[in-house]
Structures are given as C-alpha cells and as structure tokens.
Amino acid sequence: MPQKSSSQEPTDTKTPRQRRDAELRAGLRRLAEDGVDPGWHLGARLRNYFLTGLIIVGPVTLTIYLIWFAINYADAFFKPFIPAQYLPDTYLPFAVPGVGLAFGIIVLTLIGALAANLLGRTLISFGELMVGRMPIVRNVYRALKQIFESVVTATDPSQSVQKVGLIEFPSKGLWSIVFVTGETSGEISEVAPGGTRELYTVFMPTGVVPPAGFICFVPQTDVIFLNMSVEDAAKIILSAGMVTPAFGEGGGMSGQSVPAVAPPEVARALQRARRSKPRSRR
C-alpha cells in the first residue's frame, strides 16, 4: 500500500483550545481595526472638547456672575443714600458699577471705628437698650447678633478649636464631615446629655443643599479632628465626594495623630496614611 508523502501530512499541530484563542484574538483585532465607525471617533472628540470647554468656562463664568450680582445688589442698596452730587453717574453718560459697594465698605468701617471709642459704645448701648424693650424685635435682634458674633469668632485664626472633623453619623461605621463651631456651653452643657458635659457644637451640612444641615452636640471624645481646611472640606461636600484634596504636607490629624477613643480601623487607616505621606527634601 503506497504511503503518503511528507508534504501531505497536516501542519496544524495546535490544540482546539489554542485554535479558539487564536480565532478570538483575530476577531478582536479585526473589531479594533475595521469595526469602528470613524464618525464615532469624531463624535467622541467633539464631546470631549465640549466637556473640556465647559469645565474651563463654567467656573469662571459663575464666579464672574456672582461677583457682578453682589456688586449690583450693593449698588442698588447703597446708592439711594449717596447724594447726587457725589455720584459719578450724574456726570457720566453711563453707570459706574461698584460705587455703592465702596460706599458701603466705607460706612461699615466708620461705624466700626466709632464703636471703638467711649461715645460709640455709649450710643450702641443706648440703642440696644431701646431694642431690648421691644417684645418681638429684641428676640430677632439677639439671635442675629449671636449668629454674626459666632461667624466672626469662628474666622479668628487664634481659635484653639479645629474647624473640620469626623463624626460617626448617620449610623455605626459611617462617617461624616462636620464643621466644629465651638465648645457647647449654657443649658445644653449643664443638662449633660449622655452623661457628659464635654461637648462640641458641630454643623454637618447636607450634600444636596450645602447651606442647610444639622446642628449636633457631640461628645468631645467622639470627634476626630482633621488638619483639612474648611475650603477643602467644602469641596468634598459640594462635589458629592468626587473632588478629594491631596493628602500632602500638613494633612492628617492635628496634635496627636489619632485620639485614643478613635475606632481601631479608622485609627489604623489614618496612621498608615500619615506614614505614607511624602516628606519634603531640604
């Protein structure tokens, strides 16, 4: 019986699995090279260009709009109190923005200087005495005065209380960023809710409407302080967590690395982040 020549022997020695893998790679290669519509590439590029332009122009436009709105609002409020002979609009064919804002800043500065001497304090005390005799107005005035005093005090850099912290909210194992406004005092501290008088008053903003939030009185041992600035914390809240500031020099915990009462898993994570922080070369 004649034997077959060596040229007729099969040359494919691949296993079925190897052949399937080769066919799959060849199909993916054809899909990458020939199966993509060039028009899709053009549409994707245009979309990316549009989003890039929106990211660049959007913040600048909103910032300019807010500044322009504040200037126009101040002008509309203060300009009626400025005599016409001192208004540039009287002599120019167009309105000059910012005149009312500048007038308001000057007036507030003069009032602050007046309140610094004996005569000014006497007039202010007399005015507060008159307001204090009005049944409804006095409550509104005292509340607004305390709010303004708290805001001015909170912006003082010499305050020993940190501004940003973490508390375990809304349930165990979930942590929320809060702004520590000060130590709790008055009747709330005397009542000692939870058996402790050492409380912090914190404000926890909501993610949907940042100006709104919750006022909480938290035991001082349950607050984890951060070196994060108020601006960085606001970025996290306003961006719904999509923008996270870099953990560089000055990040981490203030004072002691982690309070002794911090949960173990949080303490370990913060300690690892602190040890992995890059050190600046001198």
Low confidence ranges: 249-263
| Ends distance | 89 Å
| Global structural class | alpha+beta
Content of β-strand: 5-15%
Q: Provide the succession of SSEs.
A: HHHHHEEHEEEHH
**How many helices?**
8
* Mean pLDDT over the residues: 75
Shape: flat
Largest sheet composition: 5 strands, antiparallel
Oligomer: single chain
Radius of gyration: 33 Å
Spatial arrangement of strands, main beta sheet: 4-3-2-1-5
Helicity, as a percent range: 40-55%
Protein described:
The chain is 48% helix and 11% strand. Helix 3 packs across helix 4. It contains 8 helices and 5 strands, in the order H-H-H-H-H-E-E-H-E-E-E-H-H. The chain has a 5-stranded antiparallel beta sheet with strand order 4-3-2-1-5, with helices on one face. It has a domain at 164-275. It is of the alpha+beta class and 282 residues long.
Q: Could you list some keywords that capture this structure?
A:
alpha+beta, 48% helix, flat, 5 strands
Question: How are the secondary structure elements laid out?
Answer:
Layout: H1 16-34, H2 38-78, H3 99-115, H4 118-132, H5 137-154, E1 164-168, E2 175-183, H6 187-191, E3 199-205, E4 213-219, E5 224-225, H7 230-238, H8 264-275
Antiparallel strand pairs: 1-2, 1-5, 2-3, 3-4
Helix pairs in contact: 2-3, 3-4
